[in-house]
Specification:
about 290 residues; alpha+beta; Aminopeptidase; 8-stranded mixed beta sheet; 4-stranded antiparallel beta sheet; 8 helices; about 35% helix; globular; binds coenzyme A
């Protein structure tokens, strides 16, 4: 049966859940891509995608306007490697046509699988990201807020833009972070099931942590404290509040991802009892 190729639609989320699960197990040794993450990706207006079908979906590629590319193939498909190369080539070609200057893509650490294909299509491994893990068994975490700082219950309508502003200001200039428009940020966080822990002082939001569930564990998506409020223990309190919520919900662990060269954040996480459990590679190439 010849392969068919077409743009992805919201209706593909169901079929893609299975392809993601199979691909991620081979590539990363685990799958924590939730259906809500796939739905959010398909809903983003500045992204375009390609679905390749045989008897069901065997390949998928997504390219965002900021150069974030995602490609995956069903590992049980006979021509998986060639198809993967085709999907990456599509991303490079579309990036060129859209005037996107640089592409980013993630892989696991095996030199086989995606790494081999990414290398063959001109990508270079530029950075390592770590998955960190905090076991919550027999642990009763408690957030200790610095004097003058308290927790605010998050309300999207009232606090959404303030939280987004704190995230964008805090991550500005951080390697690999993207300054996303407000609606895009909401789709990728609140739209995929995350809640927000807000730290406030004098009525203003000064630090935030987004907290959700990935692969059955609690997951911290973004942790950010405004530059002028750093070094006071606000991030530590936000992190412990995420642990506390996960423990209360009966989750076995809290996880998060951190850039391998973000020493400040890594030190914060290690002091809070988190340990590195996995590595991911970030690949990039000019177009
Ligand atoms: C990382 C970040 C959230 C820390 O916020 P913070 O409120 O200043 O952190 P805290 O005051 O709670 O510090 C807690 C611990 O973090 C570590 N830490 C914080 N700032 C540090 C620094 N400048 N250098 C080294 N370690 C630091 C320390 O271990 C500290 O514990 P200690 O005070 O007992 O030594 C903040 O710097 C930030 O928003 N950075 C930009 C966004 C970012 O990188 N987020 C994390 C991405 S995964």
């Amino acid at each position: 049966m010849p392969l068919t190729r077409r743009p992805g639609t919201a209706a593909d989320a169901r079929g893609l859940v299975e392809v993601y699960a199979a691909y991620d197990m081979v590539e990363f040794g685990e799958c924590d891509m939730e259906r809500s993450d796939i739905e959010a990706m398909l809903a983003l207006e500045d992204s375009e995608s390609l679905v390749v079908e045989d008897d069901g979906i065997v390949g998928f590629a997504d390219l965002a306007a900021n150069g974030e590319a995602e490609t995956l193939v069903d590992p049980s498909y006979d021509g998986a490697k060639d198809l993967h190369r085709e999907l990456l080539t599509w991303a490079v070609q579309r990036a060129g046509e859209r005037g996107i200057g640089r592409l980013e893509h993630w892989s696991g650490t095996s030199p086989e699988h995606a790494s081999r294909v990414l290398g063959a299509v001109g990508f270079e491994a530029v950075r390592t990201m770590w998955r960190m893990h905090r076991d919550l068994a027999a642990y009763r975490p408690e957030a200790v807020w610095p004097a003058g700082v308290s927790m605010r219950r998050f309300d999207l309508e009232r606090d959404g833009r303030d939280v987004w502003q704190v995230v964008m200001t805090s991550f500005a200039g951080a390697y690999g972070s993207h300054l996303r428009p407000y609606d895009d940020w909401v789709t990728r966080t609140i739209g995929t099931g995350y809640d927000v822990v807000c730290a406030e002082e004098d009525g203003a939001v000064v630090g935030v942590a987004t907290t959700g569930v990935r692969g059955g564990d609690g997951h911290v998506g973004q942790l950010a404290v405004l530059p002028e409020h750093r070094g006071r223990g606000i991030a530590r309190a936000l992190l412990h509040e995420c642990f506390r919520r996960d423990a209360v919900a009966g989750r076995a662990a809290t996880t998060l991802g951190v850039d391998g060269e973000n020493k400040t954040a890594r030190q914060l996480y290690e002091k809070a009892g988190m340990r590195v459990t996995k590595e991911f590679r970030r690949w990039e190439r000019d177009v």
